[in-house]
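REQUEST
  id: r-88c1
  op: predict_structure
  target: Transcription regulator
  payload:
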Amino acid sequence: MKTTQESIFSSKTLTYFLQLAETMNYTQAAQILGITQPALTQQIKKLERTVGAPLFYSVGKKLRLSDAGYTMLNATHSIYDVLNKATDEIQQTTSATQGAINIGVLASIEDHVFEDFAIKYYEANPNVIISFHMLTRKEIWERLENNRIDLAVMYLPDESIKNWKPYQSKKIIQDELLFISGDPKQAKKKRIKFKDTISEPWAMYPENYYLDQVIKESYKNQMADLPTAVARFTTPQQIYRFVAATETNTALPNSFMVANPAVDKLHTVSFEPAIKFDLNFVFRKDKDQIPRIKNFLDEFDNYLRSDDYISRLQKINQK
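RESPONSE
  id: r-88c1
  status: 200
  body:
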């Protein structure tokens, strides 16, 4: 017979509770978990009976955490922190040249440099299996929290992240968002004011993507109207191809444009003021002390020491 602790702290129970606490929506949480809404409701009610208090309550159509729910959420995060720390401590005794490394890459990032490095890293470390996962920002943070990826490659600063305590970052480069247009008037410009970029419709990233939020915040800070989006795509390659084929505008990272120089009819201009952000490795604290992770990061540093990130992109483009 299961003890109370076993009923509360089973992996499945905690996963269901965390997902509902994340989405605050039974239908959405059930879809993400791959179960039916009644099955999720039953599991949450079972958990509430076990702890002896409601964990959620409704205000109209909106779901909220109760005081007991917040206590359970804090306890659940503490449990995961202990398990993740134990896993990292165990892994710190493993080999630097064997094992697996899981890397989450933000889907909107130009990834040619990481592909090129992976080839060279494999040649020197054939017994380390590297897995790259192209993910949304939300997926990256969920997998970091659950220790399902070792490293994340993503943009910072990220104001949506409220709890940075368990994590640390390692800067790769500073990047810049550039205005891309087919308007011949932009051909000789080096900089453009925000209010002068909205005469034509845009192709953009999906709403709530990091760069979409950066664009919105930048226009808001300059008290300029937002561009009108007529198409949204998840990758810079898709946006670029759409803009090249239509009379639309967009904004894409400099790193992407270095790897994909603008065709003759497209023009690249810096915003005034510039929109800058950093590309980083993000990982749980002390994860970089695991031998194979440390070796990976050290070799990536060496890889960029001879040719920096932008130079690597330029060379890859010339191949």
